Amino acid sequence: MKENNVDIIIRKVALYLRLSKEDIEKPTKESISESIKNQELMLREEVKKHPDWKIVGIFCDEDFSGAGTYRPDFEKMINMCKNDEVDVVLCKSQSRFSRDMEVIEKYLHNKFIEWGVRFVSIIDNADTSNEGNKKARQINALVNEWFLEDLSDNIKATFRTKWENGECTSSFAKYGFMKDPKNKNHLLIDPIAAQVKHQIKNLIMLGYGQDKIANILEEKNIPSPYEYKAMNGCKLQLPISKKQDPFNITKAGNYIIKVSLYNKYKLYLNNIISVFVLGTKNEKTFNSKFLVRVRSVADDLKLYYTTTELPNIDAIKVESLSFTDGIWKQVKVNDKIPNKVTYIACYNSELDRLLETGFELEVTLKENRQQNSYKLFSKTISSPAVLLNFEYEIRKKYKWSGRSVIEVVRDPLNNGILEQGKTRRISYKNHKCMPAPKEQYVICKNAVEKTFNDEEWLDLLNTLNKRSRAGASNGIKHIFSGKVYCALCGNILIKNTSKHNKESKKIEYLICKDKSSNWANCNNNKSIRLDELENCVINSINEVLKKYYDLRRLKENKTDIIASTLFSNQLDSFNKEKCDIQKLIKKKKSIFQQLYEDRTNGIIDNYDFSTLRLKYKEDVSKLNDRLAIIEDELKIIEAKQNKFKNKDNLFAKYKQITNLTPVLINQFIDKIEIGKVNKVTNKREINIFWNF
C-alpha cells in the first residue's frame, strides 16, 4: 500500500474481547452483551487511527475468567500468533488479555517477542514496543493477580456461608429434586423422579437385585437419571460415547438424535421447510430395521412424516412441499413413526435471529450384520431463499445400571441431608477438582424435604448394607438375604441349590460362607434347608403374635418401662465411645496447634512438622470415620426403640402368619443365627433376634 508515494507495510491486527460474567443488560440470553459490543467499537475506532493496521480476526470469550488460558477464542488467537498470521494483538486493557501474571510474562514478555507480535491495550497504555513501560505492565499484572486472589477468597467464603445455611450451590439439582423457581439455592422434590425412587426402594425391600431392578426400569421405559435431566432441559454435558463417531450409527442399540437449527443469518427466517432421512450413503431412505420414537419437539416447530415414495433427497424440491395435501401426517411427542416411513419433515413459520429450534428422536437399531454406517441427511430452505443445514448429533442412549439404581436411593439427600464441599479446586488458576477430606465436608441436616421418612431410610440402609448377590437365574434374592449368620464364625449363610436327578424338584439350602472356601475353619458344616428355616421362622413369629396379642398381657409387660431400658447397654457404650472420641479429637487439635507454634518458634523443623501433620490428619480422619459409624448405629437403635414403642400397631396388623415376605421379615427380624448340629439330638439351635 502507498500513501503520498510512501510504501506502507500492512500490520495484521487481532482484536481480543473478554467478559468475565454475564451482562445483566442482555435483552435476551442468546444475544451479545452490550459490554462486548462497546469493547469491539472502541478497538475498531483505535484501528482507524492507524492506516497500516488491518483487522484479520475478532476473538471473543464471553463469561470466561481472566485466570489461566482455558478460553477457546484465546487459544485460537495464540495459534494464529504462533503461525505468523498476526502482527498486533489489540485489547481494551491488559486485564482483558489476562489477569494471570504467569500468562502475561509468558506471552507479552517472552513468546510475543519470539514471534514478532506486538501487544497494545488502550486504557492502561500497555505497549510491548515501548521498553519503557515494561515495569508498568508487570505492576499491573501483579495488581490483577492480587485482585484474582482476593476475589477467589471472597467467593470461597460466600459459598461456605451458603453451605452452612443449607443452600445448594450446585449447577444442577440431583435426580429426584429440582431447583425452586423462587430461590435457585433451594431444592424441591421432583414428584415424578421421587415416585421412581419409591419404586426402586420397594423392589429392593422385596429382595430384587440392582441389575434386575435396572432391567425392570428399562422395560417400563423409565428414563435414566441423565436422560431424564436431558429431557427436562438440563444442559449437563457428558461424553457422547467412547471411541465412536457421533454422526454415524454402526452398532445395534438405542440412540438419541438431536436435531437443531440456529438462526445466525438474518433478523428473521420465514417459512423454513426441512426434510430428513436416516439411511446409508447409497440408500438415503429410512430402513425398516429402525424403530423411531419422537422424544421432543420445539414449541415453534411442527413435525411430519410420509410413507409416500418421493425423489431422492438430493433431487427433492423442498420449497414445493405442502403439508396440507394429505401426503404428510403430523407427529407429536412420544409418537412412534411407522416402519414404512420414507421421509420426516418439519416446518417453522418464523425463527428470530440467534434463537434455536429443533427436535429429538429416539431410534433403536435391531441389528447391523452388514456393518452399514447410517447417518441423518437433511435439506432445508427458507422463504428468503436461504439454504440452511440443521446441526445434529447422534449419541448412545444412557440406560439404567445397577450402580445408578443404588446411587439414586442411597443419596443422603433423600433423608434431607445436604452434603457439599466434597471437592476443592487446586487454586484460582488451576480449576482441576480434587476430593476433599471427609472432615472438611459441610453437612446440613433437614436442608430439603425428605424423599423417605426416617424409618424408611434406616430400613433401606440396613437392607443395602446387608445386601448379598441376587440369584443368577431370576435376579431376585432369597427372602432371608442378609439376615442369616453362622453362630460359630459370624459369617453370613449363602444359598445353594441341588437336586437328586433331572425329574426331582430343586432343593434350596443355606450353608456357612466359610464352608465354601478352600481354607474352611468353621465346624458348622451342615446346611439347613430354606423351606425348613421358613417353617421355623413362621412358627416363631406366630408364637410371638400369640404371646403379645392379648392386650392385658401387653399392659402387664409395662411397655413404657421396657422401652426406656431397651438397648440401654448399647446406648451407654456408644455414647461413651462417642464422648471419648470427641475429647480425643479436641485434644489432638490442641496438640497440633502446639506443634504449629513449635515450628514457628524453631523448636522443630519443617520436615518433622510435615511428618507429624500427616500423622495427625490420618488419626483425625480415622476418628471421624468411627464417629460417623457410631452416629449411624445410634440412629438404628433409636429406630428400633420407636419400633418397640409402636409394636402394638405391628402386632395389630397380623393375627397369624402363613407366608413370609422380605418386607414382613424386615419388620419383625433383625438377624438369625444358625448354630451347629448336635450329634446326639440331631438338632441345631436357631436364635432369632427381633426388632423389638
Could you name the key traits of this structure?
692 residues; five-stranded antiparallel β-sheet; alpha+beta; 17 helices; six-stranded antiparallel β-sheet
Provide structural commentary.
The chain has 692 residues and is an alpha+beta fold. Helices cover 36% and strands 24% of the residues. The strands form nine sheets. A six-stranded antiparallel β-sheet has the order 13-12-15-10-17-18, with no helix packed on it. The chain is flat and about 115 Å long. The relative contact order is 0.08. About 3% of the residues have low confidence.
Q: List the strand order in the largest sheet.
A: 13-12-15-10-17-18
Largest sheet: 6 strands, antiparallel
Computed over alpha carbons, the radius of gyration is 35 Å
Mean pLDDT: 81
Helix vs. strand class: alpha+beta
SS field, number of helical segments = 17
Helix content: 25-40%
Estimate the strand proportion.
15-25%
Query: Number of DSSP strands?
Result: 29
N→C terminal distance: 97 Å
- Shape verdict: flat
Low-confidence stretches: 22-31, 240-244, 558-566
Précis, in short:
This protein has 692 residues and is an alpha+beta fold. Helix content is 36%, strand content 24%. The strands form 9 sheets. A 6-stranded antiparallel β-sheet has the order 13-12-15-10-17-18, with no helix packed on it.
